[in-house]
Amino acid sequence: MQSLKRKIIIKVDEQKYLLVNPYTGLADIIDEETCQLLQHDSISVDSDTIRTLQARGHIVHEGDEEDLLDYLEQQAKKLHQEALQYHNHCLIPTYGCNLRCLYCYEKHMYKNEVKLTPVMNKKTVDAFFSTILSMDSDGPQRLITLYGGEPLQLKNKEIIQYILSLGNSHGYTFEVVTNGADFQHFVPLLSTVSVKSVQITLDGPERIHDARRFRPGKKGTFQDITRGIDMAVDHDIPVKIRINVDSDNLDHIPEFADFYQEKGWYPAAKAYACSVRSSSCSPYTRVIPPEDFSRKMIDLFVHDRRMELFPGTFGSFNFVFGHLFLGTPLKKRFWGCSAHTSLFFYDPFGDIYACGEAVGHKEHRIGTFLPELTLNENYHNWRGRTIHTVPECADCSLSLFCGGACAFKAYLKNGSIYSPYCDHAKSSVEHEAKYLYHLMETRGTMLSH
Ligand code: SF4
Ligand code: SF4
Questions:
Q1: Is residue 301's pLDDT more than 50?
Q2: Which among 107, 440, 143 is positioned nearest to 278, based on CA atoms?
Q3: Does the CB atom of residue 425 touch ligand 1 within 6 A?
Q4: Residues 6 or more apart from 296 whose CB is under 8 A from it?
Q5: Nearest listed ligand to the Cα of residue 344
Q6: What SS3 class is residue 37?
């Protein structure tokens, strides 16, 4: 017998280790001695502990794990083919934006022609719909995400109304990613169509948020955004509040939790914190490096219980922690995100991209929809990235939880999307597991999600 080659062992305190079976998500606490034993090439079943670990799938017969890996690779191919049938059509009505956030990762585009582009006209919107209808004729879902730039700008209301009305008449459901500044003016309109979710960014208490996310001329947006969220909650529109965190606002997030609780937005509007994205094109010095982000975030959770209002901060990226500590069902992750399956971003130039951060970078364009639908070699490259096609990921114990992580970050770091981006998975194993385990042990309960 032998222990799983891809076992995950995380030291959770001086004497205890969390042993995770990456194939089933089963986890057990073991001591130092058992931990050492599991490192041996061959293990004899001669104690109750070993028998229990065998029953839990941590110890297997020689060759069993290889068979399982072959099976999983076949399963991954099948699931990937199925996932390709789903399309999430992300429409970028304009690259323009009504805010000038300090850390905007699209900032470089203000300086060139991309940001000067007018908003999509009806002719382009019609071409978009004829493209997606041809793709979705017998597809399993009809979904449009409004994306940007900023899609919900008051000055563009007429074309947004046109898009919502056409989508609605063809049976599409909508998701929206918005900065929320003009959102209040769209709530009545959105309440007349099917909306799956609206993601809005709020970066902390009013004075902190307004110093980071403002209109041209530095006019803050906190009041406008919160008014919009109030209206959405009243209209039963599901909202996700994204808190972009960097070293400037990290310490103010607990104070925002007070405001969030007073508002009574939960659970209609769930909030979570995530790291401000760095961009190679617009360097921003306040970004917390990925290897520090988990640790700093955990420190905050440990020292301030108000942070527990934001459990979605964990588990959204790392499925194993979502499963072990937040009670979400275990789902194996064979690829990093939907850029490798269902995402299509359509921009005002008639170009199509697979990734939300790659939009506007022509070298990543996967095709066009003007004058007609074409898909190029990039399309196959983006869709082909799975844990089985990135060599480092194919051999990695964390792969089923990590999925190979973000292809675009891998590209920025290593120059190729066919390379790993391990930062988040590794720091999450190192810091998050320990904290979440202790929380569970001291409270005897999982975080509510
Ligand atoms: S990105 Fe890194 S941690 Fe994630 S699966 Fe690949 S090698 Fe493993
Ligand atoms: S590749 Fe990275 S940036 Fe692009 S959509 Fe996926 S997670 Fe987002």
A1: yes
A2: 107
A3: yes
A4: 250, 288
A5: 2
A6: helix
Ligand nearest to the CA of 105: 2
Q: How many C-beta neighbours within 10 Å does residue 71 have?
A: 11
Distance CA 6, CA 309 (A): 34
Contact present, 407 and 340 (Cβ < 8 Å): yes
Kindly report the protein residue whose alpha carbon is nearest to atom 5 of ligand 2: 355
Q: In the chain, what are the domain boundaries?
A: 2-62, 85-313
The answer to whether 173 and 238 have CB atoms below 8 angstroms apart is: no
pLDDT (tens digit per residue) in 414-429: 999 999 999 878 877 8
User: CB neighbours (10 Å) of residue 198?
Assistant: 26
Q: Is the pLDDT of residue 284 over 70?
A: yes
Quickly state the pLDDT bin for 76 (edges 50, 70, 90).
Answer: very high
Annotate 346-381 with three-state secondary structure: ECCCCEEECCCCCCCCHHHCCEECCCCCEECHHHHH
Q: Read off the tokens for 159.
A: 């074309």
Fold annotation for 85-313: TIM Barrel (3.20.20)
Three-state SS annotation for 120-176: CCHHHHHHHHHHHHHHCCCCCCCEEEECCCCCCCHHHHHHHHHHHHHHHHCCCEEEE
Which tokens in the block code for residue 59? 């110890």
